TrEMBL record:
Listed Basic and acidic residues bias regions: 220-234
Top-level taxonomic group: Bacteria
The protein's name in its UniProt record: ABC transporter permease
Keywords: Membrane, Transmembrane, Transmembrane helix
Lineage, broadest ranks: Bacteria, Bacillati, Actinomycetota, Actinomycetes, Micromonosporales
Membrane-spanning residues: 24-43, 63-83, 104-130, 150-172, 179-197
Coiled coil: none
Region (Disordered): 220-270
Organism in which the protein naturally occurs: Actinoplanes awajinensis subsp. mycoplanecinus
């Protein structure tokens, strides 16, 4: 007789999620809408004079769609559990695996394993598409320092929301109740705390809100990004890819011109 082991439970849960058509419909829709919104925002921003080509502006435009559509991943996590309760499939699962925790851990790992690559792809594609309308000299490369961290940070928030939704679904076992609780926890509660908490503690509390926590990695990467300007690289007499005249500093909104000997970082004085 074949014993029940955690790898077998994980393989079964991963197979169930992967076999569902709704899984790929959700991931495909979220990816397409996220990348499309990044493209629309990038096109609209770059067709205007004086577009913001600093790293915060570039990354903010690229990942805005992820902030919007990542909430859908939480609903996906909820349905991954409550759907089985509604169909009765959960009874067969717990009959085969009487212990509840291995099943829940396997569902969480399977959900993250499916969602993480999709959201990493969506984040990288959003950055590329959003910048496709900008001057070539003002674009961030995927290999630039900190860009990888920004992409990972943007992808981490949707995965975390999917796991939060899965946990709520396992606790409440009812789709409508779990979705209502999820919306209150992720959207309504942070807004209420922002208005109710005193200034001294508000920022310290709100930075642990799931969406804000995911954005923290992106903001950290922004502080380490070399600042680009819109001058073509071929006309820059400076050293390296970002050297030359006209490097733009961000501290205090001051723009300084003149030759430089290396990249000007956004968190250092020019």
């Amino acid at each position: 007789m074949i014993g029940v082991t955690f790898p077998r439970v994980l393989h079964a849960e991963y197979g169930k999620l992967r076999a569902l058509r709704s899984t790929w419909v959700v991931f495909g829709t979220v990816t397409l809408l996220t990348v499309a919104l990044a493209g629309v925002i990038g096109w609209n921003a770059n067709r205007l004079p004086g577009a913001d080509h600093t790293p915060p502006g570039i990354l903010g435009r690229a990942f805005l769609g992820i902030d919007v559509f990542s909430l859908v991943l939480g609903v996906f996590g909820i349905l991954a559990v409550t759907g089985e309760y509604g169909s009765g499939l959960i009874r067969s699962t717990f009959a085969a695996v009487p212990a509840r925790l291995p099943v829940l851990w396997a569902k969480a790992i399977a959900t993250a394993a499916l969602a993480a690559p999709v959201m990493l792809l969506a984040s990288a594609a959003s950055l590329v598409v959003s910048q496709s309308f900008a001057p070539s000299a003002a674009r961030l490369g995927l290999d630039d320092p900190g860009v990888g961290r920004a992409i990972i940070g943007a992808a981490a928030a949707p995965v975390a929301l999917a796991l939060i939704g899965l946990g709520l679904g396992a606790l409440l076992r009812h789709t409508a109740t779990a979705i209502t609780t999820y919306v209150l926890l992720v959207l309504v509660l942070p807004a209420l705390l922002g208005g109710a908490l005193p200034d001294a503690v508000r920022d310290h509390v709100l930075k642990y809100v799931p969406v804000a926590a995911g954005a923290g990695a992106v903001r950290g990467a922004e502080r380490r990004q070399p600042v680009h300007d819109a001058e073509p690289r071929a006309s820059r007499p400076g050293h390296g890819r970002l050297g030359g005249a006209g490097a733009r500093g961000r501290r205090g909104g001051v723009v300084e011109a003149g030759p430089v000997t290396g990249p000007q970082w956004a968190d250092e004085p020019a």
